[in-house]
Amino acid sequence: MKCTAREWLRVTTVLFMAGAIPAMVVPNATLLEKLLEKYMDEDGEWWTAKHRGKRAVTQDELQSILDLHNKLRSQVYPTASNMQYMTWDIELERAAESWAEACLWQHGPASLLSSVGQNLGAHWGRYRPPAYHVQAWYDEVKDFSYPYEHECNPYCPFRCSGSVCSHYTQVVWATSNRVGCAVNLCHNMNIWGQIWPKAVYMVCNYSPKGNWWGHAPYKHGQPCSACPPSFGGGCRENLCYKEGSDNYYAPQEEETNEIEGQQSEVHDTHVHTRSDNSNRNEVISTQQMSQFVSCEVKLRDQCKGTTCNRYECPAGCLSSTAKVIGSVHYDMHSSICRAAIHYGIIDNDGGWVDITRQGRKLYFMYSSRNGVESVSKYQSANSFTVSKVTVQAVTCETTVEQLCPFHKPASHCPRVYCPRDCMQANPHYARVIGTRFYSDVSSICRAAVHAGVVRNHGGYVDVMPVDKRKAYKASFQNGISSESFFQS
C-alpha cells in the first residue's frame, strides 16, 4: 500500500462529544500505523525532519538569495550612506542548517543569538523559492518609519505600525555584511499552536547581528559617502564594496534541490493474528468525518442521508465550471469547493472547509469574488455556509469540555493534533468515559486511541460535540480501559 501525505491527512476521526455528562464519538481511521511508516526515520521517529540532500538550497537559489539581499539593500529609502555589500558565509549557513533541522518555530540556538541576527520563514502548499521569504521580510518596510538623525536624541525611536518590522530592519542593517541560509522540510511542525503537516522552514543567519536597540538600521545620506575606511572607497550599486567580496563558498559537487529523498513504496504485508491483539483487544475505527470531494461535488449530492460537516477540496478548482449559487449563503446545488474559494476560505491550492446547513433562504444573490462568479436565484431553497477549519495542538489531558463545549446550535470544533504516547498518560488526569460515544470530560487523545481512530503515535483527530447521553459503557480497547457512567 503506497500512502501519500494527502491520504494520511485524510485519516482523521470524529470524536462525538456531548454535554451534561456530554459525549463524543470517534470515527475515521485506517491502519494509521502503516500510513505513518512513510514518515518514520530509522529510529521509528516520524515527526522529526526527514533526511535531506547535501544542501537544502541549490547554487542558483543561494545566488538568488544573496542577489536579492543586495538589490533590496541598494534601493532603501531614504538612501543609505553606509550600506555594505553582503556576501555568503558558509559557517552561518551551517548554523542555519542545524537550526532548521530542529524544526522549532523560534529563534535559536540561544548560544548563537548573542552574536548573530536571525530571520525565520515558513510556508506550506505550493512551491515557493527561498527568495520568496527574503522579499516578504523586506516588505515589512511598508509599516516602518525611518528615524532621521534629528529624532535620535541620543537613542533613535523604533516606529512600526504593523505587527513586526524587525525582519525588514535585519535585512537592511548596514553593518550586517554576511548571510547564510538553509531550508528544511519539517513534518507536523508547530507554528504558533497550529500543526503544519509539511512546513518548508527557512532560516537565515546574519553577521554582524543587527537590530540593536536605539539605533537606526543605516545612516541616511548619499550612497557610499560614509563607507568604513577598510572598503578603500569601493562602491557598487549604492553599496560599500570591497574587491574580492564576491568570493563565497562554492560547492565541490553538483547540487540538487532535493529536500526530501524519494520515498520507497510501503507495502501492507502485516497480518494481525489473534496473538497480536489478545492483550490489547485491538479495535480499528472505520468511520470518517472529513470527506475528500472533487471540485464538482454539490452539497446536495454529498449530504443525502449523511451528516454535513467537514470536507477536503483538491487543488485547481478555479478552472472548474461547477456552479456556485449565492453569496455568503449558498444554495445546496452549489459546488462545495468553489463556494469555499468564492467566500475566501481556501484558495486554488485546495484545503479543508467546514459546512453548516442553514435552512431555507428566500433568494440567493450574485457576486464575483476570488476568481469565482456566483449566480443568483430568486426562489426559496435550502442553504449552507462555509467556514475555515482551524488546527490546534492539544495535550493528552485536553478534553472537549475545555476545547469546544457543546452548545445549541452545535458549532465546529478545531481539528486537533494529538501527541504521541498518550496511552502512558496518567488515567486519573486523562480519563476515558464511554465506548464510541464518550463523555466530554474524557481525554480527546486517549479516547481516540481507545476508539481506534489513532495509534499511540498520535495524529489528527476531528471532534464533534453531541447532546448528552444517560449512560456510557466501559470497555477495554487498544490497551486502554474506559469507565462507565449511568445517570439516574
Automatic annotation (TrEMBL):
**InterPro entries according to UniProt:** Allrgn_V5/Tpx1_CS (IPR018244), CAP_dom (IPR014044), CAP_sf (IPR035940), CRISP-LCCL_domain (IPR051957), CRISP-related (IPR001283), LCCL (IPR004043), LCCL_sf (IPR036609)
List GO terms (cellular component aspect).
extracellular region
PROSITE patterns tied to this protein: CRISP_2, LCCL
Instruction: List the SMART domains hit by this protein, alphabetically.
Output: LCCL, SCP
> Which domain of life does the protein's organism represent?
Eukaryota
Q: Name one Pfam family in it.
A: CAP
Subcellular localization is given as: Secreted
The entry's keywords: Disulfide bond, Repeat, Secreted, Signal
Boundaries of every LCCL domain copy = 289-384, 390-488
What Gene3D superfamilies does this protein's entry cite?
Answer: CAP (3.40.33.10), LCCL-like domain (2.170.130.20)
Query: One biological process GO term for this chain?
Result: face morphogenesis
Q: Which family does it belong to?
A: Belongs to the CRISP family.
Q: What is this protein called?
A: Cysteine rich secretory protein LCCL domain containing 1
Q: Which organism is it from?
A: Callithrix jacchus
Give me the gene this protein comes from: CRISPLD1
